[in-house]
Amino acid sequence: MLISFLFLLLATVCVAFVGVGLWVFSNHFLTTDIPAAISHPMRLRVLNCIFQLLITWGMIFEKLRICSMPQFVRFVHDLPPLRKHPDVVVKDLRFGTIPVKLYQPKASTSGLRPGIVFYHGGGGILGSLKTHHGICCNLCKKSDAVVLAVGYRMVPKHRFPMVVRDCMVGTIHFLKSLNTFGVDPARIIVCGDSVGGTVATILCQKLVDRSDLPKIRAQILIYSTVQSLDFQSPSYQQNKNMPLLSQNLTFYCWCGYLDISPSWRSAVLKGAHLPAEVWEKYRKWLGAENIPDRFKKRGYLPVSREPLNEAAYLETNIILDVMNSPLIADDEVVARLPEACIVSCEYDVLRDESLLYKKRLEDLGVRVTWYHMEDGFHGVLTTIDMRLFYFPCSSRILDAVAHFIKGL
Question: Can you tell me where the transmembrane regions are (predicted)?
Answer without folding.
Answer: 6-30, 42-61
